[in-house]
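Reminder to self: tokens first, then the designed residues, so the page reads top to bottom the way the pipeline ran.
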């Protein structure tokens, strides 16, 4: 049985994508299948040093919830292309946003798919994704609000981020000591960052000049 209930999709996203399948879902009266669209091919998803964590999580979840079967749909191997990166050959998967749109608008769209935050505005404009805030209890999710804001477009929570990549700037204390400039305290503005960088003889950054 194919299902489109976002209640179950949000559970699978939290348990499978974060590989923390350890909670029980509510009782079901009949088996269901949920299709999870991988953004990789099968050959590129297996055989690595980490093994196969997604399929391991799916198997563990199924043990806890035998009536729920998660089917991992891989991209076709034909999407793998050889590209040149600085003179070195590299294998890449040519799966574009347009390809994803065609998949979501097809007669058999996946229940779950990974999407880049940069593609969310276009996906929202095409009404391709469900607003997760319509799910009962969604506003009580224990996820950092700033992270959820990255997945919210026009007041709609369109996806659940499963990772965050914070940026950090390190500084050399010796250089600051030699220039007799106080260490940054974390409250610098971009203007202060630019001015101190100039005093330290750093190469100007175009966006800050």
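Designed residues (209 positions):
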């Amino acid at each position: 049985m194919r299902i489109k209930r976002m209640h179950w999709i949000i559970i699978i996203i939290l348990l499978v994508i974060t590989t923390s399948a350890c909670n029980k879902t509510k009782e079901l009266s009949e088996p269901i299948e949920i299709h999870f669209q991988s953004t990789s091919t099968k050959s590129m998803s297996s055989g690595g040093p980490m093994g196969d964590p997604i399929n391991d999580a799916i198997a563990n979840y199924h043990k806890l919830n035998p009536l729920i079967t998660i089917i991992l749909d891989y991209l076709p191997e034909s999407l793998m292309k050889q590209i040149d990166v600085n003179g070195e050959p590299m294998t890449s998967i040519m799966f574009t946003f347009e390809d994803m749109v065609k998949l979501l608008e097809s007669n058999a769209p996946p229940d779950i798919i990974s999407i880049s935050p940069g593609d969310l505005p276009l996906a929202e404009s095409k009404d391709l994704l469900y607003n997760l805030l319509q799910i009962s209890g969604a506003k009580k999710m224990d996820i950092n609000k700033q992270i959820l804001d990255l997945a919210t477009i026009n007041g709609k929570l369109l996806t659940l981020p499963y990772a965050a990549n914070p940026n950090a700037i390190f500084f050399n204390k010796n250089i600051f000591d030699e220039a007799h400039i106080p260490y940054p305290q974390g409250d610098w503005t971009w203007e202060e960052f630019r001015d101190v960088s100039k005093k330290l003889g750093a190469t100007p950054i175009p966006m800050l000049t």
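Helices lie at 6-17, 42-45, 53-64, 97-104, 120-125, 145-150, 173-179, 190-199.
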